[in-house]
Specification:
With 272 residues, the protein is of the alpha/beta class. Helix content is 42%, strand content 22%.
C-alpha cells in the first residue's frame, strides 16, 4: 500500500502545482490588472516621460494592448536584462514584454506566447572611422552587450569577439563612449533611432551591414501557465488580424518587418 499512497500523494501534489500555475489568469482578473515587466532601454521600445514619470514606448503600448484584450487594468514594472527572468519567476510580474527574443535556452526555463509579435535582430554601433563595417571585423575586439543577451553566443562563437556583458544597454553604451569597447550590440531599432535622431551620437554609426540573428519577439510567461498563454495568444493573433501592430510600429517610427506583414496576411484571412 505504501507505493500506492506515495503515487497518490505525488499525483495530488502535481495536480495542486498545475492548478496553482494555471491560476495566474484568474488572479489577473480577480485583482483587475495585469503586471507586465517591460524594458525601458530607450526609444522606440520604452522610456520614462521626464514630465509625467510615466512609462511610455512600444513595449508599454503592447502591454496596454494585452490589458485591454483581457479587460483589465495595467501596471508596468521596469526590468533589466540582468533581472527580468528572476522578476517573472519570482512572481513580481505576470508576463514579460522586455526585448527578449525567442531562443531554445530561454524556452527551456520559461513558457512563451506561440504567436510572435515581431522579429528583431541585433545591430552594432561604433564610432565613425573605427574601421568596423562587417561583423567579421569584431574578431578579437572587445564588444559590449547587455547581460543575458542572445547576441552573446554568435558574437563570441561565430565572430570571435571578446564579449563584455554589462547590466543593461545604458551601461553598455556608456562603456562604448568611454572607450572600453569598440562596438556595442543591441536590438537594431533602438540603435538605429539613436544614431538617426540623437545629436549626442552624431560621431557614431551603425557599423553592421545586416542584423544579427533576427529572432521572433514573443511574450514570456512562467512554465505551466497554459490558460494565460492561450488567452494572450488569441490577443496577439487579433493584433495581426487587424494590422494593429503595423500601425503601432509606424507610430513609434519603426519599420515593420516582412514577418509582420506575413502574419497580418495570414490572420486576416482567418475568422476571429
Amino acid at each position: 500500500m505504501k507505493p500506492l499512497r506515495a503515487a497518490l500523494a505525488a499525483t495530488l501534489a502535481f495536480t495542486a502545482l498545475a492548478a496553482h500555475a494555471d491560476a495566474t489568469l484568474d488572479k489577473i482578473r480577480q485583482r483587475g490588472k495585469i503586471v507586465v515587466g517591460v524594458m525601458l532601454s530607450g526609444p522606440p521600445f520604452g522610456s520614462i516621460d521626464p514630465v509625467t514619470q510615466k512609462h511610455v514606448g512600444y513595449n508599454v503600448q503592447l502591454s496596454e494592448g494585452v490589458a485591454k484584450g483581457l479587460g483589465v487594468g495595467l501596471e508596468t514594472v521596469q526590468v533589466q536584462p540582468s533581472n527580468r527572468v528572476q522578476f517573472l519567476q519570482q512572481g513580481k510580474v505576470d508576463i514579460l514584454i522586455a526585448n527578449m527574443q525567442w531562443t531554445q535556452e530561454r524556452s527551456e526555463i520559461l513558457s512563451f506566447v506561440p504567436t510572435p509579435f515581431e522579429e528583431v535582430g541585433g545591430a552594432a554601433i561604433a564610432k565613425k572611422g573605427s574601421g568596423i563595417s562587417r561583423w567579421e571585423d569584431l574578431r578579437g575586439k572587445p564588444v559590449c552587450v547587455s547581460q543575458g543577451s542572445n547576441f552573446t553566443r554568435p558574437l563570441a562563437e561565430q565572430y570571435g569577439a571578446q564579449v563584455k556583458a554589462l547590466r543593461g544597454q545604458p551601461e553598455s553604451l556608456l562603456a562604448l563612449r568611454g572607450g572600453n569597447c569598440v562596438a556595442a550590440v543591441h536590438v537594431s531599432p533602438t540603435l538605429r533611432e539613436l544614431v538617426a535622431g540623437n545629436p549626442e551620437w552624431k560621431d557614431y554609426e551603425i557599423a553592421s551591414p545586416s542584423d544579427l540573428i533576427p529572432s521572433p519577439s514573443v511574450i514570456w510567461l512562467r512554465k505551466g501557465e497554459a490558460d494565460t498563454e492561450a488567452a494572450i495568444d488569441r490577443i496577439v493573433q487579433d493584433w495581426h488580424r487587424k494590422g494593429w501592430l503595423i500601425e503601432v510600429e509606424k507610430r513609434h517610427g519603426m519599420t515593420p518587418t516582412p514577418l509582420l506583414h506575413q502574419l497580418h496576411e495570414k490572420f486576416r484571412k482567418t475568422p476571429a
